[in-house]
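We were asked to recover a plausible sequence for a given structure. The inputs and outputs are reproduced exactly as logged, with field labels preserved.

PROBLEM: sequence recovery
POSITIONS: 231
GIVEN STRUCTURE:
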């Protein structure tokens, strides 16, 4: 089955930047990776409608990690589209208790206090995922020809989705605001480096980051390591 990936860019509160969701369409239906923050709900709903994604056709909402700017509309969309949510267990407390620092090593009191208010992650936005994903989980049972890769670093429960075509939806391990690079916010830099080394074992073409434009893995390697394409 051929998948078409549409990257949807949504604004963050107070002009603090943008965040990406990915809508995947194939002959089985639609699959949404990440949901943006609740302040951009209307725009996201308009994007889904314009793409033909109507209630009854969204097969799964899968989340790369638990941060509010990626999960802010998950509970709402689950109800509207009568679908299921899926994410890694290690980020559960973020969405269940509204605590972005639930599993993180680093914690700033002011940021911890401000984040739920900034991103509007009150009790109505919190939820318990229907499905927990882990390394190697095959999503073909939902009609999405992709597998889960655990790529911690930004958060303990960060995961990516590698399609059969070799495209990676990588969440906040990467960013491409100016150039393809590791995300500037890392809770565990050593884990992030290990995740990059792990990804070197896969054939990856396009990378869809949580923030910024899609890029090729070749571009990332050239930017980060000065690697040239091997012939």
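RECOVERED SEQUENCE:
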């Amino acid at each position: 089955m051929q998948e078409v990936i549409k990257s949807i860019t949504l604004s963050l509160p107070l002009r603090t930047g943008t965040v990406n969701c990915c809508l995947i369409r194939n002959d089985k239906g639609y699959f949404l990776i990440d949901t943006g923050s609740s302040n951009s709900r209307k725009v996201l709903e308009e994007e889904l409608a314009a793409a033909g994604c109507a209630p009854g056709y969204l097969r799964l909402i899968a989340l790369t990690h638990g941060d509010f700017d990626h999960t802010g509309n998950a509970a709402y969309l689950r109800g509207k589209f009568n679908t299921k949510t899926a994410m890694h267990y290690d980020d559960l407390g973020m969405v269940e208790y509204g605590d972005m620092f639930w599993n993180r090593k680093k914690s700033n009191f002011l940021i911890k206090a401000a984040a739920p208010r900034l991103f509007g992650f009150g009790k109505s936005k919190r939820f318990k995922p229907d499905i927990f994903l882990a390394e190697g989980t095959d999503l073909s049972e939902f009609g999405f020809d992709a597998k889960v890769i655990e790529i911690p670093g930004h958060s303990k429960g960060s995961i990516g989705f590698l399609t059969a075509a070799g495209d990676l939806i990588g969440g906040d391990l990467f960013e491409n605001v100016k150039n393809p690079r590791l995300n500037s916010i890392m809770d565990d830099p050593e884990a992030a480096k290990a995740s990059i080394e792990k990804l070197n074992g896969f054939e990856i073409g396009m990378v869809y980051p949580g923030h910024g434009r899609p890029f090729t893995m070749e571009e990332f390697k050239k930017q980060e390591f000065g690697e040239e394409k091997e012939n």
